[in-house]
Structure prediction request, 286 residues.
Amino acid sequence: MNELSIRRILTWRLAAVVALVAVVATACFIDDADTPGDKFIAISAGEDHNCGITTDSTAWCWGDKWTNAGWAYAPSGTFTAISAGSGYSCGLRDDGTADCWGDNYEVRNPPPHGTFTAISVGGLRSCGLRDDATVRCWPNTKGRADVPAIDRVPYTDFSAGWGDNSCGVRDNGNLECWGDYGWPDPPEGRFTAVSVGLSHACAIRDDGTVACWGDNAGGRAEPPSDQFTALSAGWEHTCGLRDDGTPRCWGAGGAADPQIRRFVAISSGADHACGLRENNDIICWD
Prediction:
């Protein structure tokens, strides 16, 4: 075998190794085949489906359309906010009213009348932020409509939660949780954002660090020491965006850190996560 033949064989082998590494590096992604090709301005990951708002303000959902067809078909019209849960999704219309859709095989509960400025759909209930910054909750296709223990208090952020608990950030920065899962009290201090998983919750302090509490199986209540601008809790994991837009995930039974990606928004579903990129593309991974 001459030197030229040896060089060709080595080149082919190197190319094969590079291709294999590329496949492994992207194996955790749910690529374009599983996400729509439209451009988006908002994303929300649910249990078996995801929803987003396209650049023309229409709602678009995708996922498990075969076994539960109602989950993944959003109504027509334009929306300003959207949230996907477990067999149930809701969005806010241009006029602030809530519109919800869900599993065709169960009776879905309509949202309350009135207008909202934000909305969060969880596993058992949905919650909305009224114009006066108070929180109103209602049951999904199943579950209860628990309300905050301290009623008529203004909130700046809230999360319906995947389990029996919901939490919110009051206008003074304190955390308030409601439900009956039997969790410990939330940590003290001032916070800017909160997200509730199945049996744990995480919140961003005013210095950008994260505090988590509840079930710590798999390290879901042990956040990294980075500073974050956003976070989203799934069933047993949490993902957040650091100051530079890079994602970081922790916990068990959920999404791993995606490789070399920057996002402007992130959302955790039951056991996966989705991110919105600066070019308005959506990437989902597990």
Notes: The two ends are 46 Å apart (CA to CA). The longest helix spans residues 3-25. Helices lie at 3-25.
